[in-house]
Amino acid sequence: MNFSKKLLAILALLPGLAFANEGGFPLDKAPDRSHNMAALQNGAKLFVNYCLNCHNASAMRYNRLRDLGLTEEQIKSNLLFTGEKVGEMMTTAMPAKDAKAWFGTVPPDLSVIARAKASGAGTGGDYIYTYLRSFYKDDNRPTGFNNMVLPNAAMPHVLWELQGVQAAKFVEEKDPHDESKTVHKFAGFEQVKPGSMNKLEFDTAVADLVGYMEWMAEPAQQTRKRLGVWVLLFLTGFAILAWRLNASYWKEVK
After folding, report:
1. Are 63 and 29 in contact (CB under 8 A)?
2. CA-CA distances (angstroms) from residue 45 to 74, 85, 120, 222?
3. How many angstroms separate the CA atoms of 65 and 41, rounded?
4. What is the structure's pLDDT at 248?
5. Domain boundaries, the chain
6. Is 30 helix (H, G, I), strand (E, B) or coil?
7. Under DSSP, is residue 154 helix (H, G, I), strand (E, B) or coil?
8. pTM for this structure?
9. What are the φ and ψ backbone dihedral angles of 59, each rounded to 5 degrees?
10. Which residues pair with 172 in a beta bridge?
11. Rounded distance, CA 99 to CA 123, Å?
């Protein structure tokens, strides 16, 4: 299967390319990590440790991480744990049938999730950044957690040991469209149990993870942008040259 067909297959697996919460829970702006190699390297480490246990990233090879400044030896020592080779795709060892039995659905491939989740509400990075920080304690859910961005998400809160446990606070307010009714409105999070990181550290770690996922969705993005600048400069110069040549030609004709 060539890359374009594989990419189409991955997109077909993603459950809905539009925001599930568009017009609902507001998205926070994800910090830009595109030029921070140390942050992207940390994001790759977090991705392998916390995401690759259940999700595939089958359009990405481990050896492509050399573009982030990692050596082949660093990739082997820090990011390969179950006998994979550096040239292999980043896939999970969890069988799809087991994932469906445990979570009720097969976890989507994350290769291009940061692009697939973009919409009018924000970028895909904004969505993932807000989503991963918006889990809250809910004893009515099988995993013990719910999510403000994607209510009743099947995904467990895999980062809870880092973030700790937070509860969602809600208040009852009058419905602006009907004063005889009240609406259940979100009023913020409250920390119930501390994690191994404080809020700033956790937000930074999530930003690194999201930055890596944005890079993974299009590893050549920075090269494309640099090349685009040169192409525009060339076209501008060519347009000026053509304009002056045209003026000179018609001057002789006249």
Report:
1. no
2. 11, 16, 30, 21
3. 8
4. 83
5. 3-219, 226-254
6. coil
7. coil
8. 0.81
9. -100, 5
10. 184
11. 28
Q: Which two tokens stand for residue 230?
A: 């040169």
- 217 phi and psi, to 5 degrees? -65, -25
Looking at the chain, how many residues does it have?
Answer: 254
pLDDT tens readout for residues 111-124: 999 999 998 889 99
Contact 112, 7 (CB under 8 A): yes
33 Cβ neighbours under 8 A, 6+ residues apart: 39, 40, 43, 207, 208, 210, 211, 212, 214, 215
pLDDT tens per residue across span 177-192: 777 778 778 889 999 9
* pLDDT tens digits, one per residue of 2-27: 555 455 444 444 443 333 454 478 99
Q: What angle do CA 238, 242, 247 make, to 5 degrees?
A: 150
* Alpha helical stretches, state H, 18-121: 37-46, 72-79, 96-103, 113-116
Name the H helices within the chain.
3-13, 37-46, 72-79, 96-103, 113-116, 124-132, 160-163, 199-217, 221-253
Among candidates 50, 19, 30, which has minimal Cα distance to 150? Answer: 19
| C-alpha–C-alpha distance, residues 180 and 250, integer Å | 77
The superfamily (CATH) of domain 3-219 is: Cytochrome c-like domain (1.10.760.10)
Residues 202 and 130: their CA atoms lie apart, in Å, by 12
* Four-point Cα dihedral 76, 114, 89, 95, nearest 10: 110
Q: How far is CA 121 from the centre of its chain?
A: 14
* Pair of tokens at residue 254: 């006249």
